[in-house]
């Protein structure tokens, strides 16, 4: 049996308990006693026991062997037999039992230890992984051996050549100013955020890629649209980590932490605090990414510094060689190694030989030393200037794409966190930050996150007809298609406007052999189908999910079909909007319309795309669709007018009772006296008359539209 000697003796009583003084008298002769523990309360049927702790193991061993099984008088008439045994100094599972019995202490301590472990071990690894992703440490295509193998195998067999991005934007005259503004932002220290806005399909991404390819700097892309499309918080965290290179990610631990929090509420009445909210997780990832960006910048600076030092050493060696060559040419060079052969004193003159020794010797040496010092100073100035340029180029670039709030899938906390993070990057001059958005309204979050400095705004608009035609000619010429545009074809291209996505679709159709006129018609017809579905819904149930009413979007469509733009405040001041700006903002987010501003306030409403003007016209000219939407719009207007009539009737009834109760003079039947109630009644009656005439006119119009529908028009 594994029962080893111990200084602690467990004394079990077979009978009544033995008093402490009696135990001391029995065990003291065998050695010095440190402590005696009296019996505690035990379950029924369990023998009671006490413990005697000796100072020395030898004393405990003698006492156990001698006193085991002796009878001790516990009282005057009772005898107790004692049985002795060793007790382990450390009880089994003592630490575990203590921790389980003190959860209010152990759980917070466990959380602290896990947080410390994450901060000290995993965060440096994650920062290193972010740096590795941006520096292409894990991209095998960037390795020299892979590029050499590809150049000598696949490339020789006729591999595909990378597309020339810069040539795709050379035909856009409207892009030159935007390109110059973006380059000017990248050539200065980051002090604010560059906000590039323009409608979807205006070529923001293409232009940005062309500029960044010329810069040749490290770029980190974050796609907000991909993040907002995630169904759960864990998927959002995983996607952001994948885009930034943040690894490892323990999303499973956060799910397990929710279960632990539920259990801790039942145990200690409060959450353990192991889980983190979505905001905390996103902030943690972005903070680690910021450290990785700082590491990327430091790595580039170190590489640049090594190159500068190597270049400086090379130039110093070349300068020394030039001076040595000049001395040899002039005959003033002296090899000191000859002194070892010729000796010292008078004999050292043999080391000089036939070298020229005149008054110009010292001047030549001084001149050469001065030239060397000037060259060193010039080299230092050039090195410092180059160091400043290299330090600016060492900064990475963070591109946040699709920064916009879409209908139904907007995560406001995500956009706010990204805005605050971008502001912290530029304030700390960690990186240049470029934000791409389809709407100028989305700059409000960025301006709020960076209130001390204005945003560096870069706007992109649709190209004019001449630029659009030049763009098409260049792209078709690159594809080997030369077309002399006729007047009709030029007019067809002008109908699409200058939206880059529409022009790319037209070019694709023409390259497939389709005529320009037919291609434009196909694009417009496709736009009609998409607009009918996205703006009006496929059925009544689908229309209920839209953030605007059918009569509202039809009012906008019918108005923009007649004119290129309409006044913003004129629209919201009357039916069917009547102050409802939310519906117009949702239409702008859905890219059905574009709201232009003047002096910081909304000014006018235009179609979301230049092509939409012809799409709106097609919808209005469809007699069946136009009749259905007009009937729906008139029904809503009739209902509003009838409510007005009903309100006027109720008010006139009340005014009649008031006028009947007013005191009347004896001559009131002869002279009519103006009162407030009479004037109000006259105004309400006129208002009710206008509403009634409007109802009658709309009813007649609806009857005519219904007859047209019955005739199958």
Automatic annotation (TrEMBL):
Pfam families: RNA12, RRM_1
Cell compartments where the protein resides: Mitochondrion inner membrane
Entry keyword set: Coiled coil, Membrane, Mitochondrion, Mitochondrion inner membrane, mRNA processing, RNA-binding, Transit peptide, Transmembrane, Transmembrane helix
InterPro entries according to UniProt: Mt_escape_2_C (IPR018850), Nucleotide-bd_a/b_plait_sf (IPR012677), P-loop_NTPase (IPR027417), RBD_domain_sf (IPR035979), RRM_dom (IPR000504), Yme2_C (IPR039627)
Gene Ontology CC entries for this record: mitochondrial inner membrane
Domain RRM span(s) in chain numbering: 16-75
Domain Mitochondrial escape protein 2 C-terminal: residue ranges: 175-658
Domain of life: Eukaryota
Keyword Transit peptide: yes
One GO BP annotation of this record: mRNA processing
Coiled coil: 631-711
Entry's Gene Ontology molecular function annotations: RNA binding
Membrane topology: Single-pass membrane protein
The keyword Transmembrane is annotated on this UniProt entry: yes
Family stated for the protein in its record: Belongs to the YME2 family.
Functional summary from the UniProt entry: Plays a role in maintaining the mitochondrial genome and in controlling the mtDNA escape. Involved in the regulation of mtDNA nucleotide structure and number. May have a dispensable role in early maturation of pre-rRNA.
Protein name, as recorded: Mitochondrial escape protein 2
């Amino acid at each position: 049996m594994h029962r080893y000697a111990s200084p602690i003796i467990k004394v079990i009583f077979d009978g009544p308990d033995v008093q402490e003084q009696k135990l001391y008298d029995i065990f003291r002769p065998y050695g010095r006693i440190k402590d005696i523990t009296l019996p505690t309360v035990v379950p029924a049927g369990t023998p009671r026991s006490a413990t005697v702790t000796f100072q020395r193991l030898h004393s405990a061993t003698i006492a156990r062997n001698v006193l085991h099984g002796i009878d001790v008088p516990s009282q005057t008439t009772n005898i107790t037999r004692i049985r002795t045994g060793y007790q382990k100094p450390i009880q089994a599972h003592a630490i575990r039992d203590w921790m389980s019995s003190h959860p209010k202490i152990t759980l917070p301590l466990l959380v602290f230890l896990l947080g410390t472990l994450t901060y000290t071990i995993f965060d440096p690894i994650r920062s290193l992984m972010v740096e590795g992703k941006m520096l292409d440490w894990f991209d095998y295509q960037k390795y020299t051996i892979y590029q050499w193998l590809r150049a000598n195998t696949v490339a020789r067999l006729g591999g595909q050549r990378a597309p020339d991005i810069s040539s795709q934007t050379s035909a856009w005259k409207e892009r030159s100013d935007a390109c110059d503004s973006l380059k000017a932002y990248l050539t200065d220290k980051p002090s604010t955020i560059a906000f590039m806005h323009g409608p979807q399909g205006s070529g923001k991404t293409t232009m940005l890629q062309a500029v960044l390819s010329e810069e040749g700097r490290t770029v980190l892309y974050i796609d907000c649209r991909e993040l907002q499309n995630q169904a759960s918080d864990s998927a959002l965290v995983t996607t952001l980590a994948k885009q930034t290179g943040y690894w490892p990610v323990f999303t499973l631990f956060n799910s397990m932490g929710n279960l632990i929090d539920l259990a801790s509420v039942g145990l200690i009445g409060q959450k353990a605090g192991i889980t983190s909210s979505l905001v905390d997780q996103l902030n943690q990832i972005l903070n680690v990414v910021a450290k990785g960006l700082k590491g990327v910048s430091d790595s580039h600076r170190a590489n640049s510094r090594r190159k500068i030092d190597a270049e400086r050493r090379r130039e110093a060696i070349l300068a020394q060689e030039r001076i040595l060559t000049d001395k040899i040419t002039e005959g003033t060079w002296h090899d000191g190694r000859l002194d070892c052969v010729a000796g010292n004193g008078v004999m050292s003159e043999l080391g000089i030989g036939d070298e020229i020794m005149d008054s110009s010797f010292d001047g030549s040496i001084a001149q050469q030393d001065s030239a060397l010092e000037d060259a060193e100073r010039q080299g230092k100035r050039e090195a410092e200037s180059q160091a400043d340029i290299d330090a600016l180029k060492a900064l990475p670039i963070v591109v946040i794409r699709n920064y916009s709030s879409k209908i139904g899938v907007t995560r406001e906390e995500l956009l706010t966190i990204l805005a605050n993070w971008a502001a912290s990057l530029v304030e700390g001059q960690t990186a240049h930050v470029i934000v791409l958005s389809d709407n100028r309204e989305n700059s409000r979050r960025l301006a709020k996150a960076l209130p001390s400095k204005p945003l560096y705004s870069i706007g992109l608009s649709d190209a004019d007809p001449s630029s659009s035609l030049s763009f098409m000619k260049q792209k078709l010429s690159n594809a080997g298609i030369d077309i002399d545009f006729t007047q009709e074809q030029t007019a067809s291209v002008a109908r699409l406007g200058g939206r880059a996505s529409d022009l790319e679709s037209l070019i694709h159709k023409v390259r497939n052999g389709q005529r320009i006129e037919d291609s434009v018609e196909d694009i417009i017809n496709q736009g009609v189908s998409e607009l009918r579905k996205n703006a009006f819904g496929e059925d009544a149930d689908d229309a209920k999910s839209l953030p605007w009413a059918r009569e509202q979007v039809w009012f906008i469509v019918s108005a923009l079909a007649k004119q290129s733009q309409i006044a913003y405040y004129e629209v919201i001041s009357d039916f069917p909007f009547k102050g409802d700006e939310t519906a117009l903002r949702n239409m702008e987010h859905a890219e059905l319309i574009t709201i232009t501003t003047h002096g910081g306030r909304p000014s006018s409403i235009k179609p979301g795309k230049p092509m939409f003007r012809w799409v709106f016209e097609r919808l209005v000219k469809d007699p069946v669709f136009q009749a259905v939407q007009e009937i729906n719009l008139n029904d809503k207007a009739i209902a509003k007018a009838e409510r007005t009539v009903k309100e006027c009737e109720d008010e006139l009834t009340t005014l009649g009772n008031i006028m009947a109760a007013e005191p009347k003079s004896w001559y009131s039947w002869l002279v009519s006296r103006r009162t407030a109630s009479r004037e109000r009644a006259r105004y309400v009656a006129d208002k009710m008359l206008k509403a009634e005439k409007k109802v009658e006119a709309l009813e007649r119009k609806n009857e005519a539209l219904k007859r047209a529908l019955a005739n199958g028009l």
